[in-house]
Amino acid sequence: MSFDPETLIRKLRGLPAAQRYWVALSGGLDSTVLLHVLASQRGGLPGELRAVHVNHGLHARASDWQQHCVTLCASLGVPLECRSVKVEPAAGESLEAVARGQRYAAFRALLGPGDLLLLAQHQDDQMETFLLQALRGAGVRGLAAMPEVAAADGLHLARPLLDCSRAELEAWARQERLKWVEDPSNSDTGFDRNYLRHEVLPRLKARWPAAGDTLTRSARFCAEADGLLKELGAEDHGRYGAAETLPVRALRELSAPRARNLLRYWLQVRQLPMPPAHKLEEIMQQVQARADRNPCIEWAGAEVRRYRQRLYAQQPVAAVPREFRLRPGMAQELGEGLGVLRLMPASGEGLRAALCGPDGLAVAFRHGGESCRPAGRGHERPLKKWLQELHVVPWLRDRLPLLHAEQELLAVAGLFVCEAYAASPGEPGLRIEWLEHPPLH
User: What is the reported pTM?
Assistant: First the structure.
């Protein structure tokens, strides 16, 4: 079987029309073939053809590769945007994963609504991804490998070459006398993907010539199964009224596989990273813990806690922030997982604006011994008692922003304004806005 440019164009015409088609151009074989075909057939595309090159700066020849892309696009009359990114992985982070994250951030910053990003991964890339996921013990979501069409993180993308092998693309490129660049790191078999590419796939194809087609088909079946699991997760998510929190009874009433599926769906809706399998099992076990316990299960970028028979999922919450002053219109980051606090002028709501001096209001956090009378309540009590009555989750009680003036407690962000300091109807006020905070109750 040989590469057929007409099939590629028909495939793109079968997708929803885009205003602009952006080829992610590295300068390598795959993206060079994709760009050449589209440039020669651009009249068959409903929208404008463009290219984008992301320079990661990780190789001594990175500037040469960028210049190659500039020259190639100029020869084809295709507008090119070049973006440079910094790839600085922290300890324990994967260089490849960080580079990918920076690359996609550059794509998101460039592409607009109605744009389609075209990636040049081919069938061999799909095989490598499928095998890597299988070797890592992935479920159907991982084994679905790379989708042909996807919408994620504000990007609409397509991979129109997934049915084409690298050998087919290279044969066509040599026939057309195309020039491309080779990244020498692609031959380093110290990397798992390169080991599969150079040591494993050739032997698989020699023994099973149709391996590319069959593994790609398996990935599609896994993608279908994953879609069904998402539908089931959405059904259970709605059935149990899950939103910011998940009732523990859902995991007790459902079968174990279905409960795990609901947990994964709920975490995905919360836009949190998926836990390793052993952490997911730990959550399932902690559901059975004594009612007076408030367990916490943590993994990279997320944590799940239990309180009053509900589960709470969030980013790890930062340590208690330092005290600071807040002026109207000013926004203050409170730290990882705690959101942003700001004061906004508002008539007849929030705090009385007259309480705010030129330096703003002091924002502090619980030291113990505070007392107050929330607006609409008949008596004053220790703040500790109010937080218990309002069922504020224990891990946030010492992280609630407390607004003060002259040592007087004026308000507790996210909960209430104290009676004596609340703005009257029509009086200039300051609305306390605590944005993107974790669930409080």
Answer: 0.76
